[in-house]
Amino acid sequence: MNPKSYSKYKYEDLINLGIQVKRTEIFGKIVDSKPSDYLLETLSFNSQLPMATEKAKCELIISPILNEVVRKNLKKLTYFSGYNFDVDEKNGLKGFCDYLISAIYDSPMIEAPIISIIEAKNDNFELGIPQCIATMYAAQIFNERKGKEQKSVYGAVSIGTEWQFLKLENMIAYQDTEYYSIRNLPELLGVLQTIVEEY
Q1: What is the pLDDT of residues 17-37, one digit of tens each?
Q2: C-beta separation of 78 from 106 below 8 A
Q3: Which CATH number fits the domain 6-197, given the four candidates 3.40.50, 1.10.3470, 3.30.2010, 3.90.1570?
Q4: In the chain, which end has fewer C-beta atoms inside a 10 angstrom radius, N or C?
Q5: Distance between CA 139 and CA 123 in Å, rounded?
Q6: pLDDT at 138 over 90
Q7: pLDDT tens-digit profile of 154-194?
Q8: 123: Cα within 13 Å, side-chain hemisphere
């Protein structure tokens, strides 16, 4: 039986779609990207606020980081938060995505999604990984249908302070063996910038 939405996906559901999952180092050496003073001040202040829910983590930590990436790449990206991304109802590739980043600037609707970001529920990366891969696969299908096929689609699962990245290519989902932390913000921003520069 197919899952009913992205949030219900498990590893066995990915196998049913024909997707292999492999753990590997994705990025190698990263060129750091210096955070703005505004981002540093924002995260410093927000870290003092209560973050009892996933939504709070998204709004207080993840959103400011994504805003920074968009700011560094003006007129290149649009990101969507809480976007209903229904692509293939039969296979359960539907539901809300925490974040989708599109390689089209200032678009009112999703076009050419290149990165999907999932907030890990209950701070559990392993639960978030198959959900994220499902949204990445949906993005791949979406791009093919729109005639904007991408060689790779990236994803990330985040608990706010820690991030793990994924890359989907040729039906193989590569799960990074590295975790990136806001304690080393230049490195984390460097990973995101590396992804953006592929497009």
Answers
A1: 999 999 999 998 999 999 999
A2: yes
A3: 3.90.1570
A4: N
A5: 24
A6: yes
A7: 999 998 889 999 999 999 999 999 999 999 999 999 999 99
A8: 8
Greatest extent of the chain over all pairs of C-alpha atoms, in Å: 49
Pairing of strands 172-176, 20-24: parallel
Q: What's the rounded Cα separation, in Å, for the pair 174 and 112?
A: 20
Query: Identity (one letter) of the amino acid at 12?
Result: E
Residue corresponding to tokens 């991408």: 150
- Close Cβ partners of 103 (under 8 Å, ≥ 6 residues apart): 76, 77, 111, 112, 113, 114, 199
Question: Is 90 within 8 Å of 134 (Cβ atoms)?
Answer: no
Could you tell me where the DSSP H helices lie in 18-120?
37-46, 54-57, 63-72
Q: How confident is the model at residue 52 (pLDDT cuts 50, 70, 90)?
A: low
Report the distance separating Cα 33 and Cα 50, nearest Å: 28
Q: Where in the chain are the domains?
A: 6-197
Alpha-helical segments (H) within the chain: 11-17, 37-46, 54-57, 63-72, 125-145, 185-197
pLDDT at res. 199: 86
pLDDT band at 107 (very low <50, low <70, confident <90, very high): confident
